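Researcher: Next entry: Penicillin-binding protein 1A (Aquipseudomonas ullengensis).
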Amino acid sequence: MMRLLKFFLWSCVAVFCGLTLSFSGAFLYLSPGLPSVESLRSIQLQIPLRVYSSDDKLIAEFGEMRRSPIRFDDIPKDFIRALLAAEDDNFANHYGVDFTSLMRAATQLLSSGHIQTGGSTITMQVAKNFFLTNERSFSRKISEILLALQIERELSKNEILELYVNKIYLGNRAYGIEAAAQVYYGKSIRDVTLGQMAMIAGLPKAPSRFNPLVNPERSKERRDWILGRMLKLGAIDQARYDAAMAEPIDAHHHVQPPELNAPYIAEMARAEMVGRYGSEAYTEGYRVTLTVPSELQVAANQSLHQGLTDYDQRHGYRGPETRLPGLTREAWLQELAKHKTLGGLEPVIVSQVEKSGILVLTRDGEEKPVTWDSMKWARPFLNTNSLGPRPQQPADVVQIGDLVRVEPNADNTQLLFRQFPAAQGALVSLDPQTGAIRSLVGGFSFEQSNYNRAAQAKRQPGSSFKPFIYSAALDRGYTAASLVNDAPIVFQEAGMEEAWRPKNDNNTFLGPIRLREALYKSRNLVSIRLLQSIGIDYALDYVSRFGFNRDELPRNLSLALGTANLTPLEIATGWTTFANGGYKVQPYLIERIYDRNGKPLFIANPPRTAASAASANQQNDALLAETPNASVIEPAIAPQIVDERTTYILTSMLQDVIKRGTGRRALSMGRGDLAGKTGTTNESKDSWFSGFNADYVTTVWTGFDQPESLGRHEYGGTVALPIWMSYMSAALKDKPEHLLPEPAGLLTLRIDPLSGRAASPGSPDAYFELFKSEDSPPPMSELDPSLGIPGSPLPADEAAPIDLF
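Model: Predicted structure:
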C-alpha cells in the first residue's frame, strides 16, 4: 500500500514538473510574440455611425455591429452576479487562470493530444476575444493563459469585466450587453428584469444555440440553470429566484427605430461621412449632428406625402396590385409577407365586401374595417386626362382577394383606402442666410426607391427659372417698369426643318407689358425677348454665378423658358441669393461630428451673409463676456454675387406672383412676406414651385420618374404649390413676417403704366414702382421716340419675325 502511495505521489510530482517545464518552455517560446496588454486600456471597440437631427433625434445607425459600450459602474450588480455564475464563479479569487480548468486542459492534452474544451476564465476569454483567434490548438491555449496572467497583473477585475461585457458577441448583430438588451428587449441593460439578465448572461457560451429568438426552449433551460447557480452561490434569495423562474421568455427582435423618419437625409450624411473617413465611418463610433430640425423634417414628410396622395386620387384608381381570389387565409398571409409597407402604406387583402365598407386582412393576421367614405375617390383610371364613372358602392372598387394598400388616419383610429402614387416628388428647404439644409425629402418612399430626387434628379425647371433671367435683366439696365412686347415671334435658323414659334401657356398675347406684370403672369415671349436683348453670353455668365454649371446650360433662347436640366437642390440653392440680399451660400447638411468620447471633431463654419455673420459675432461676444476662455469660431462671409437692390426689387416682383399671379393660392396662408414662382414644363411633365421669405427658401418638384404628362390642368400651381404651402405653413407657424429691409440706393416713383416713364402730376392711372437710383426713368416729357416701345431698351422693330442667329 505504501509503495502504491509513493508511486502515486511521485507520478503527481512528475506530471507537475512536466507541466511546469512545458509551460516554461512555452512561455520562453511564445512570450516574444505576445501583444502588449497595456493596449487594452486604449482599445477601440467597433461602434456604429449614428446620425441625429439638430434637436438630437436619432435618424439612422450605420454599421454591421450593434454596440453601445457601457461603463463598469453602470452595469447592474445582478447582471454581474448572473454572468459570474454562468461563466466564472471563481473570478474574484483567481489570477487569470483557474487551477481546475488548467488541470482539465492538461488531462485532455495528455489523453488525446489536443484540447477538447476550453474551461476558460473570463480573463482568458478577454485575452482570446481581443488578441487571439478561435483556433483550437495547444499554442493558442498557452498564449491565452499567458496573456490572461499578464492581464490580471496590469488590469483590475472591474476593468477586465468592463472589457468583457462590451466585447462579447451575443447574437443578432449585438455586441456587448447593452446592445443585446436593446435587441432582445428594446431597453437598456439597466432596465431589464433579473430573468432577462440571466438570459443575456447565458448567451456568451453559445449565442446561436441559446438564442431566445431561435431556440426559446434551450434559452430557458440555460437561464434557469444560471438562476439556480445564483441561488446556490447566495447571489439571490429564494423569493427572487422563484419570481425570476416564473418570468416568461418574452424576447423579441427589437431594432431601435429612428426617432425621425428622414432616410434620404440619412443616406446623404452616410455618404459624406464615408467620403471623409472611409470604412472607419462605420466602426469608429462617430456621432453626427445635422442641420435638420425634426419638426421641419416631419412637416416636409407629411406635406409631400399628402400632396402626392391628393394628386394621385384626382387621377383615379388603377386597380389592385394583384388579385388572389379563392385562396385560403394562410395563403393570403404568405402572400402578404412578400410585400413591404411603403411610404406608410400597408399591404392588405380584401377579405369581405359590404355596403358600408370592406374588411381587410393585415400581415399580422387581423381583420380590420375600411370605411366606404375613404374609397369614394376611387374612380377607375383611364389615362391621366380621363376617369371612369364615380363608384356607388365598395363592390364597384374592389373584390375579395384584391391586394390593396391602406393607411392609418391621423389619430390611428381607422384605416383609409389608398394606392401607391405613380407620380413622384421632392422637397428641399434651406436657410438662405447660411445654406443649411433644414429639410429634404427625395421621394414618396425610400423603401420603394432610394433614388434621391431632391439631389439627383435633373429636370427642367420651367418658369421657376425665369427669375434668374429677370435678375440678369435688372442688372443690365431694365427696370420693373420696363415695357417689353408680349407678341408672337418666329425664329428660323438655316438647316432647321421648321421655324420655332414659342408661345405663352394660354396662347394669348398682351402686347407691350411691364416686366413686373410679365413675371407674375409668366409670359414666355417676354422672357425670350429679355434674354435676346441682354445676350446669351452675358446671361450664361450671370446665371452661372448662382452655382449652375455654365457648360450644362443650353446656349440658346430656350434658356429663358427653363430648359436647363437642374436638380431641386440646385434650384433652391440659386434662389437663396434672392432671399438673402445677393449672397452666394452653399448648401450643407452636417453641423457637427463627434468622436466616440463626445469630443467634437468638426464644427461647420459655412460662409454666410453679412447679417448672419454679424449675428454670430454678437453671440461670440456674449459668450466671451460670460466665459473669457471660451473657444469661438470667427464666421466667414459669403461672396455677394448680386446687387442687394436687384434682389430687393426682384423679391417685390415675386411677391406679386403670389398676390396676383400664378401663385395666388398661397394668399390663403395669410402672410405678406412670401415670394415665389411656379414652373410647368411642356405638356406638364414637370411641376415646380420655389418660394421664400427671409427665413426659408423651399423648392418643390413633382413629376414622373420616366417623364410623361401629369395631366390636363395640372401645373406648378396645382401640384407643387399646395405641397409648398403645406410645408411653409408649418415651418412659419407662430413666426413673425420676415423680409429683408429695403437697402439704400432705391427710389419709389409714380409711373405711367402706358409708357413706363415717371408719371405727370395728377395722372389718374399712375402706380408706384421701385427703381435703383441710377435707373430711375425720365419724365414723360423726355420720352425718346427712337426707343420704339416706351420705357424699354429694345429696338422698335423687335415685334416683327426675326432670325435666331
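Model: Note for the record: DSSP finds 21 helices and 22 strands in the chain.
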